[in-house]
Amino acid sequence: MKTPNTIALAALGILSLGASACSEDSYTAPVIDIDLTDTYYDAAETARQDVFYKPAVGYVGDPMPFYDPVNGDFKILYLQDFRPNQPYTYHPIWGVSTKDGVSYTSLGEVVPTGNASELDAAIGTGCTIWHDGTYYTFYTAHSANAEATGGIGEAVMLATSPDFRTWTKDRNLIISGGEAYSNTDFRDPFVFRGDDEIFHMVV
């Protein structure tokens, strides 16, 4: 991004905001004329590897960011899209770590796909939480062979790790749509801890 004088302007903005936040006066946001701004993105910037992470082979699909309280960095899991993918087993979860959102360290494959007859033959978006010394990654399991998977084409599954390096899939935990919801379109779990101290999942 081309940003002449951005640091000075940002510092001035922070000081102005801080001063008004400490007083009883209300803060009025400045009016910015977009036609007069000198900050813009260059069309070639989307190809920069130091800003937008791209694996050496394939593409990033569905980033799943997670702040790791143990290591004090961000882990960004994503669906590794090889293009072409295998016909039934595709999109394993890979990952990178970063402390600044600009430089990345590849973690390689984190959660592999199952085989063609398993529910997680293909993997879709999920999320990660850390609790009591264990990392939990909930993810979408997708199978094109519902007959082999008990009539379930899509569900939520779980992998756990003590160290974010070795992962174990829990083959007994399968959260599906059941009779109330779809068993072929049940995806993208997001888990959070509420004010009630209970973990909740949004699907």
Fold blueprint:
Blueprint: H1 6-22, E1 59-68, E2 73-81, E3 93-98, E4 105-111, E5 122-131, E6 134-142, E7 154-161, E8 168-175, E9 190-193, E10 199-202
Antiparallel strand pairs: 1-2, 2-3, 3-4, 5-6, 6-7, 7-8, 9-10
Mean pLDDT: 83
Main sheet makeup: 4 strands, antiparallel
Structural class estimated from helices and strands? mainly beta
The first-to-last residue Cα distance is: 36 Å
Number of helices: 1
H/E topology pattern: HEEEEEEEEEE
Overview features:
10 strands, four-stranded antiparallel beta sheet
Describe this structure in words.
The chain is mainly β and 203 residues long. It has one helix spanning 6-22; strands at 59-68, 73-81, 93-98, 105-111, 122-131, 134-142, 154-161, 168-175, 190-193, 199-202. It has a 4-stranded antiparallel sheet with strand order 1-2-3-4, with no helix packed on it.
